Amino acid sequence: MSAEKIISDWANKRFKPVYWLEGEEEYFIDQVMDYAEHHLLSETEAGFNLSVFYGKDAQWADVINACRRYPMFSERQVVLLKEAQQMRDIEKLESYIENPLPSTVFVVSYKEKKVDGRTRLARLLKEKGVVLSAKKIYDSKLPEWTQEMVEKKGYSITPKAIRMLVDHTGNDLTRIENETEKILVNLGKRKNITEDDIEQYIGISKEYNVFELQTAIAEKNLAKAIRIISYFESNPKAGPIQLILPSLYAFFSKVFMIYGVQSKDEKTVANAIGVNPFFAKDYLQAAKNYTYPGIENILLLLHSYNLKSVGINDTGTEDASLMKEMVYKMISLQPN
Predict the structure, then answer these.
(1) What pLDDT is attached to residue 180?
(2) Which stretches in the chain have pLDDT values below 50?
(3) What does the pLDDT read at residue 243?
(4) Which domains does the chain have, with CATH numbers?
(5) What are the helix (H) ranges across the chain?
(6) pTM score, two decimals?
(7) Which of 39, 189, 205, 306 has the fewest C-beta atoms lying within 10 Å of its C-beta?
């Protein structure tokens, strides 16, 4: 079951006695736990009927005893077990999960891992409870997720602003939402987030960023690429090499895939390489400007300079110098 479905059920007063939230994507787990803590009970009810435990410090017997209590002046009580992956003897909860109290909503967050499906605990959870298995969103889906998240808040966002925001934050949904909230409180009456807002309120230059660097390389615009790297050299936090090289590798890996796609229309290419159709033209432009061996050479250069950036086959060259040398070889020294 999804986080959205669980919260929707709760909003409509549909409750199960046990909810088990597990997996790698903390954002959805935290979203459900936060709703359970702050919205299932009124402030008055919570004073008597909300119990919160943390796995590292909690004793299984105390958790079960809390779950077996009856609510006071309320239809239900809520028991939260956070960071349950740190709890010893967690399998001891089986006795309660097998026979839960209908008036208790027991919510467990079990982050960064999943219960072994072969265990009795897993079987009981499937039979008696609701399990949310939160998976990491693929990087290619981040722009779409970001747009949907912004739209649910009643706003819109330009495609370039999405790209800048996602490139800046990486695959961190909580950070993407936090940065978005920072922008929204400054928009006033406007309802659209632009690249200017990203630049002003998050501090990412709309002209000098990883996205613009990859565009410059894709367009074979060496002068522009060098200007961007020089900006990074003067503003190290704007473009650390550890961020730039993986981003470029991800971009040109997808360009490499285009050579195996028969139809070159934007929608077909977008589906084949797993990107938003709006950005397909950037990848197609790069595939047009470079030959198959040229893109292969770019990927090999990125691998080589990634090793140099960590001191392998290099004697301490500055990051900016490495990047300038790399893009020169990418753009000017192309194989036939």
Answers:
(1) 94
(2) none
(3) 85
(4) 3-134 (3.40.50.300), 139-202 (1.10.8.60), 210-332 (1.20.272.10)
(5) 3-11, 26-39, 43-49, 60-68, 94-98, 120-128, 142-152, 159-169, 173-184, 195-202, 210-218, 222-234, 241-258, 266-273, 280-289, 292-309, 319-332
(6) 0.74
(7) 189
